[in-house]
Amino acid sequence: MFVKDYMTRHPIMIEPDKRVTEAQKLMGESNIRHLPVVGDGKRLLGLITREQLQIAPEKLGSLNVWEITRYLADLTVKKVMIKRADLYTISPDATVEDAAALMSQYKIGSLPVVEDEIVVGVITETDLLIELQNLLGANEKGWRVTMRVPDRIGEFSRLSSAINAKGWGIMAMGSVRAPKTPDYWDIIIKVRRCTEEALIKTLEAIEGLQIIDVRETDITTN
């Protein structure tokens, strides 16, 4: 899974000499929260976020209504944007895990995607959450199962073999270390074409594996 497959291609962009009021209008009409600022040839110069468009109350408190109007009219994107030197960016060939790591480490909601400093896309935290849903089959009807297994070779195979032997379909599978239990893994698996009763009976028959949760998911409730 690469950034280029999940980013927004050809994102809406703005030039640095445009007025902040234009950026506000553009972001509102397009329902976006991140607006790359570019120069000639779509070269990245900065980024506008909704936070950059907020004016400090102490600034407005010292101005009358006419001064506020003039202040906003004269304010340009260049004056409020996050400058290129302070931005984190990512390559389209990076993995989505790389993007998620950068966003979580630096507590940012988006990354401009660049090639040779040219903006080719934007990837946001929302894009990553959508992909997490897809990765776990959240938008498909079926049974979502969480199984706790020992940290040893062959446990994935035992679980998938038991399900495949029944002729059921495995739509998705993922794993994380069990919370507060580092010697175990929690495997999340999405199964279809079975009943809950038959599924639980099959899982209970696998020695050494613990059923943590079984629930039905439906695309109408996700």
Helix-strand layout with pairing:
Layout: H1 3-6, E1 8-9, H2 20-30, E2 34-38, E3 44-49, H3 57-61, H4 65-74, H5 77-80, E4 82-83, H6 96-106, E5 110-115, E6 118-124, H7 125-135, E7 142-150, H8 155-164, E8 169-177, E9 184-192, H9 196-204, E10 210-217
Antiparallel strand pairs: 1-6, 2-3, 3-4, 5-6, 7-9, 7-10, 8-9
Molecular structure report:
The chain has two domains: 3-131, CBS-domain (Roll), CATH 3.10.580; 136-221, ACT domain (Alpha-Beta Plaits). The protein has nine helices and ten strands. It has helices at 3-6, 20-30, 57-61, 65-74, 77-80, 96-106, 125-135, 155-164, 196-204; strands spanning 8-9, 34-38, 44-49, 82-83, 110-115, 118-124, 142-150, 169-177, 184-192, 210-217. It has a four-stranded antiparallel β-sheet, covered by helices on one side. It has a three-stranded antiparallel β-sheet with strand order 1-6-5. The longest helix is centred in the first third of the chain and has 11 residues, at 20-30. The mean pLDDT is 89.
